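User: Round two. Same drill as before: sequence, then structure, for each protein.

Assistant: Same drill it is. First protein:
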Amino acid sequence: MYDDEPISSFVFTNEETTQTFHHQWFAQGQLHECATCYSSIDADEPPSQHWLRGGEASQGLQLTKQQQAVLDIIEARQIETFFFCDESSKDKLDHFMGETCARGVPELLRWMFQNNTIAVEFNLACYVNAMDQVLIFQSGSLKVEHHFDVEECVSVVYEMLMQRIENYLNCNCEYGMDECSITRLRVQVKRIRVEVESPGSTPFALPLQLRQEEDGLSTTTTSESELASLRSAYLKHYRECNGYFPPNMRVNLYGLQQCKTTKELYVVPYHVSETLQQLPNKNYLILNNIMGQFQRLHELSTPVKSIERDPSGSPVKSLHCRRCRSQFTRSSKLHIHQQLHCGQDFSVDSMHADIVEIYEQCLPISRSVFQYACYGITKPKTVMRKGQFVPIECDWRSESSVKVQHGPCVVISNAQHNSPCKFC
């Protein structure tokens, strides 16, 4: 069974001079107050000020100058293969892999969503050290269409990989999981990008959690010219008036927030206009990229359903895959599972423990970013040596410099403009 979905309430409380927003959720029969989703503004201010005073800015990905420099190298070299490694991880089979899939891999994929990237496609492989051989378990490829879906997609791939590793070891090996370790993960990423000149015509996807609710309900009644006019008005007042929209703007605008505690997405009001006619106002969702920059307006079904959920309602029904009967409580995770064809595209391979993989032109990424050592790979090759991972690092900001972290090493060549080769 996968993780239960919290039953959440997003509450606005009005007092004499202030309006307060806070998040609560019910899980396993208990009420929890969220410590990270809280905001207070003056009572006469528009709701957009809840999210524009630090809350919305903190949702965007913020890179340091060093991290941006590494990303620039990744793009310039068109690096699509990355290794996470920790040769000291010998205690538990899933310790290193679990921590890396919880933090390092999602953070790497979020990096890939920058610079006009609208989707990423990735697969994950783990190297299981099993006595005299190394077993390589690889997932199928999965397309992530929104940066808010990254953690959930990686979580499902991790769960399915661990299940297959356990089943394989139980059925095909004389030793159990306690005698194995994972010290290496490989992530292969392909980026799907949009041309800078035509962002308005690009169908930016909704986050998967909202896509499940909107499927079959959303009916677009706004013409292209009306939508373009509304988009221009929104951007003008967002930039010039800091989210103070005029009263005659007869639409309801909503934004997306993600709870840092539960990772749940929720829809929040930006601008709610009074209805002067019998027809209700139209509702639009503001979609931003991972940096917090505007992408498009998405017309929502009426009424907006994702603002608050009734905790007294019926419990979430258990879902199952019709093909393999796996159980889920989140429709989004069931959707990801089905995208992966129930794991039919997953594979297992093996190599002798004495084979070492040597990679030329290897880009090191700071441990402070991904917790474990991470390397971007451009040119792989395999030679017969003692069984250990040998990353060949090159500082691309210098024409012929070498940084050695895994030694002792012998430099074979160090020609200008080329990365060195070295063996342990």
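Second protein:
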Amino acid sequence: MALRRSSFSHHLLRRLILPSFHSHHYSKSTSIPKKQERVRDHSLDTIMEIHKKLRLALSLRELLLPFASLPISRFTTMARRSLSIPPSDLSRFLIRHPHVFHIFEHPVQRLLFVRLTPRAISQLNSETLALTNSVQSTILRLRKLLLLTTPLLRLRLEHIRLIRYDLGLPDDFEQSVILANPGLFRLVCKPDIDAARSKYVEYVPSDSDPPDIRIPAVEKSREREYRVSGSETEDSRFAFPNKFPPGFKIGKYFRVAVWRWQRLPYWSPYEDISGYDLRSLEAQKRLEKRSVAMIHEILSLTVGKRSTLERIAQFRQAMGLPKKMKEFLLQHQGIFYISTRGNQGKLHTVFLREAYFKGELVDTNEIYLARKKLEELILLSPQKANVERMLTSMGREGFGVGFGGKERLDESDGEDSGSDSGVDSQYFE
């Protein structure tokens, strides 16, 4: 009996003096639990469902642009070979989106043809104009992206080409942006390497750079938050905005771990850390948080504050990003959101959560608004366009809009950019 009392007293004394495993883990560690289940955000998933239709519309538009109009049979063959779209799916898509694609009967050949509607051409012209007007801000975004590779200050041309749409770069950016600005960029070719991997784009220092070019977007966000709410400097100095998805369960220990992680100092993504000793545990934690800041800055440089996980992962070696990107981002679901909708699980789209509110981008720009017009055309109900009359009547009366070449299309757009058919509005209900 005395032995049991002694053992019980000794055990109770150890419980009072020594903290438990969980208390020790969350009081000493700043790490967030690595294995986190992904909680869906339906507002952001809806964006990707719309983007699925938008990607197909953009691909079909690229096929149509060089021709102004094409016979349906030839267009079906091209879409099947280039995009692997079955003829039935293509026909269904064209009929469901008459505000973007105009199907009409040729007055002589009596065959069905397809062309872009004047409103779709107007959207394309407005996007081209937005890209032209935003060239200076686009150049700055590209320079900041190159600065994230410090001390290398260079990226493969092919990697930039893959993310050009997200950055707002034109398709011919190699000529119109890089080679056209030799004082800002340098195109370097390495010998003895295949052509796709031999070209690199290097950052060239310039006195024209703004003084805050190396200041990350999250630091500017902290400054705005401090001015509005006046939060404590110690808590907000190294913190990231957190907006967890609806239904995300935040336990007591997880909340403490996030709070400690937010207070953890880290190196700026624009800082050169090549000479630092990164072997200590504290350095590894700071390096991990720096990776969060790096991905945050990449997404901040994009037009829509989102990009695919695969495009971000291609910068892994140049920017020192972690290998298991998906698991890494799932640790920080209050900062990033990964959506698998709209692409059959083949691609993962990463959103910057703080940039969206109720499924809408908070801070818009000219390029984003121009591209948004095409989404609005896709979302318009096909019932608003009388498809039957378009097939029978628009071919004859709107014939002058479709067969005069690309210049003829641009001219017709200015005359009647509000109609989907190129004819009078009597064909719409």
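The radius of gyration is 27 Å.

User: Perfect.
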